[in-house]
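Note to self: the last two entries modelled the partners one at a time, which told us nothing about the interface. This time every component goes in together.
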Amino acid sequence: MNRTVDLVVIGAGPAGSNAALIAARAGLSVVLMDEQPSAGGQVWRAPWPGLNGRFSSTEARQGDALRARLAGSAVDIRLGRRVWSITNGFRIDAVGPDGNECFLAPRLIAATGAYERVVPFPGWTLPGVIGLAAATVLLKSHAVLPGRRTIVAGCGPLLPAVAAGIEKLGGEVAAVVDLSAPWEWLKAAPDLATRPELLSRGIGWGLKLLTKRIPVHFRHAVKCAEGVERVERVTLAPVDAAGAPVAAGQVVIEADALCVGHGLVPGAEVTKLLRARHIYDRLRGGWIPEVDGFGRTSVPGLFAVGDGAGIRGAAPAEIAGEIAGLTAAHEGGSIGHQEFADGAGQLCKRLRSLDRFSDAAASLMALRPAQVASIPPNAVVCRCEDVTRAEINEAYDAGARDANQLKHFTRCGMGPCQGRMCGDIAAELLAQRVGSRPTVGHWTGRPPLRPVALDELIGAFSYDDIPIPEPAPL
Amino acid sequence: MTRVLDLGVVGGGIHGATIALFAARGGMDVALFDRGPLCREASGVNAGTLTMQMTRVALIPYALRAHAMWASARQWLGHDVGVLVCDGLSLAFTEREAELLTFRAGKRREAGAPIEVVTGARARTIEPGLSDKVLVAGHCAVDGFANAYLTGLAYRRALLAAGVQVEEMTPVLGVEPEDGRFAVRTPGSTVRVRRLVLAGGVWIEPMLTWLGVRLPIKTLVNQLAVTERLAPAMRTVIGVASGLLSLKQYPHGTVVIGGGWQAIGDRERGGVELVPERLVGNARLAGYAIPALRAARLVRAWAGLEAETRDALPAVGPVPGHPNAYVCGSVHSGYTSGPYIAHLLAQRILGREPEMPLFPIERLLTAPNATAA
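The predicted structure of the combined assembly is written out below.
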């Protein structure tokens, strides 16, 4: 089944939902797809139905408002769809409850969000160690604690958010381990204060940790996690501003869970697959598609918005989504030039007013090169294929100079996570030998965009239906 | 005075790298140029199949010897390319396919491939993972596969150990004949060589224009896909009568699905994009042959270029009008036969009589000013 529409939006988070809403309101026929069972993205994930609103939060309320707006719109919302193929022009194939669906559209907005970065350390693959962003999913969507006694480690705003979330559900936070120093937060404070509502939430989290007397280890990183069946204890070590360990005392803390994350990586698979131009931007999380002020990539008709186009957070994502949706509507001929210019002009101004906050938050989460440089040789970098840092070093010694060659030499990134977990770190490790991230590049975008079971792809068929091409010459 | 090398090879795939290796071991000073890293086009992204049952009849004698070379790669190359020798089965699901298979197996057997046509029941004892839909199968004990993405790593080590000047990431901009030598121009320098080999796969056509020779090469863009690691589901290399499926499970558990279904792309842009319905068609054929694969998840698909001449036979031999210039490539199922055929040309370049005939290119040339058909 092929259906032609004016616009397909992939990702129903703040960016994609708002893009779809504004484009549909302007008169385009819009299909909005997401792999999750409900809209909202990661930040506004819908709480599990059985929770019946018992653990309400600002984010849940914001998400509910968005879901209500979508429900009242003309947007054709397709949830539980895994987009696996996109080809130029555009043809979008997705598997879902009704098998494979195919949509054709002249315009496509990729609003695919981000995934989290964990800078590896020995023991990060033990059961009980999860990402900070993963912890927010457990807490927000399922009201489930990561463990009985949890260490929360890493950097950026997710750190106090997760610690406070655990406390809120009645869990125990054994320690908060922050790569940053207190003055880095203070330095960011004036910029963070440009969005007082978010700063005050952050301060609220901080106060909560203070009143509960939770030990906070600033300028520390997890050195290793140990345990037999699962994590039992975590060793911390002090680090310098760049994230490198400094020779001083270690701290060992017992815990049965460790939530650790070092920022977010843009999920730019769609734009990579379609061969749009990308640039490396450390502040924005890594490789991002080159976009203009309207979210247009170098591929005609292809837009990229939200964290997938560079880490900025939810509020800028909403506005960037609206700008792209409006632009798509204008290009599609459903709104006139003046209406577009007025609308987009105002949105662009609002977007700029959020820059200071986004930059400050993003800089707290940006990758610290010295932290990567200090990954020990025995630490697993690619957890799907068990590739260690030492093996990446050996690949460099054997001649690997770019990301794709590294993949061939080691199988790093060839597993079912499709290189999402290890890609940024593996490239950074190679770049530290080769000289620069642009030289090392990134893994070529390949379908399927998500792993997809053969059964889902091929469905029910009879042998005669297989369009077997002419035999090769004898 | 500028140093003149004995041999310059343009193109660091399986053909160019093999010639460079044997020439260097034969005592020549050799430089090998590639615009990218070694073996990262067809030689590194193909399905790695080492089968007789997809090989053209005329190439069977070469492929048999090449298979023996692959099987002993550790000895002559010095490094493992993950080669595994196993049984191969080519399947027929319909009466028409059974006819095609029996005919083709007969022709290949005449050419020396030990292929035996067996019943579906017998095929299932050879490959317990096989579907019960198989009517007959071609069975060949000379089959197997390599891990194609390791080719570059293995050759690179061997070439450096043999003293070859390996010039990766070095595009050759042009070649000028001068006084019986060749000036090989790259962005950084010009290298002078006494002998020249053009081994650029699908890029042989533009390379030959440097010498004023026109040899049309068709570019095939083959789709491939790989599953995540699975529990053992199969132990043989599986193909089908038409040749449009290749299937094998690697020791680490992944299953590579190929067969030459065509993607979108060309010589200039590479494999631009995969055609989803062809990916589905190829996957259906795979799931039909080995039902256990239906539960597997596909994690990656890609496209690789393959060169094909007008008669789909190799272009391997001297370049007419240019003594000491040679071309090597466009070998159908070239990964299987490549090392042996390139080895033959290396013998010729070293002044020896090749063990088997080369594939002179005069038959393929069009007039320099003629437009392409």
